[in-house]
Write a structure and sequence with these properties.
The chain has 272 residues and is of the alpha+beta class. It contains six helices and eleven strands. The longest helix is centred in the N-terminal third of the chain and has 12 residues.
């Protein structure tokens, strides 16, 4: 499939050097190791929204490691809550999911670059159904742009994506790396139905330097006939903040709930 030719997005930048490309790919692998928690705001495209669950429009979320998340709507209403730290560890649970035996990112040993990004990362368990919208997984961990390790030096075109342009920018007030990419033949998206880099399209990806998450994805040019891919936008509000367990769990019954008075009719029946 031919990739459309488009004007340079960053005309003042020279062609990306090998070291700069390696840095971008290392950043794309690094998100699980760069933050213990995130608070972010995201605009949900209509194509991915779930209006029946309140998962539409502008949402704000807090996520702790890969174990807990709480999501609120634009008016502050809690629309989604999920956690893994109280998950059952019975024999049936262990047989049903790999999240019980795959270590969290913080307990595994990746290989680091000299600037403390990830050169090679171990096989970690992913979010295991924690997220309310599937396409969030690739935004919060854009490893699909780089693969879990560098491509072989013997294979010049074996990277998952080709980097055509690369620039350091400021996005929503945060330092970021922006790249214009196309998909290579080894590209394997995290979500097959929603790749960050659609096949045959020139795509802008902006990665946050502090957290490694994808701040923006925008298709610049696509082959004729390709369905339009929505713009993806995420704004980091805070990271490495401390969040207590109760933010991610359903509220416990109150004393009034537990000791609610028995209706008079029922008390009469009991006496009889």
């Amino acid at each position: 499939m031919d990739v459309p030719a488009v004007p340079l997005l960053f005309p003042g930048q020279s062609a990306p050097e090998s070291a700069a490309r390696r840095r971008f790919r290392a950043l794309a692998r690094s998100a699980p190791w760069l933050s213990t928690s995130l608070q972010f705001q995201v605009q949900v495209p209509d194509e991915y929204a779930k209006p029946e669950d309140g998962l539409e429009g502008t949402l704000t979320a807090i996520i702790r490691q890969r174990e807990a998340i709480a999501v609120r709507s634009a008016d502050g209403q809690l629309v989604y809550q999920q956690e893994r730290f109280t998950a059952d560890r019975s024999r049936g649970y262990v047989a049903a999911t790999n999240s019980s035996w795959k270590l969290p990112a913080s307990l595994t040993s990746p290989v680091y670059t000299s600037d403390q990004l990830i050169l090679r990362r171990p096989d970690i368990s992913g979010f295991n159904g924690l997220l309310p919208l599937e396409h969030w997984e690739s935004m919060l961990d854009p490893v699909e742009l780089a693969g879990t390790e560098p491509a072989s030096h013997d294979l010049a075109f074996d990277h998952p994506t080709y980097i055509h342009e690369l620039a350091e920018i400021t996005h929503d007030g945060r330092p970021a790396l922006a790249a214009v990419l196309t998909a290579g033949h080894t590209y394997q998206p995290t979500l097959a139905s929603a790749p960050l880099v659609p096949e045959g399209a020139r795509t802008l990806l902006v990665l946050d330097l502090a957290t490694g998450v994808c701040l923006n994805r925008r298709v610049l040019a696509a082959p004729t006939g390709m369905p339009p891919a929505p713009e993806l936008s995420l704004q980091v509000l805070a990271h490495n903040e401390y969040y207590i367990d109760s933010l991610f769990t359903a509220p416990a019954p109150t004393l009034t709930d537990v000791r609610a008075p028995i209706p008079w009719e029922l008390r009469s029946e009991r006496r009889s």
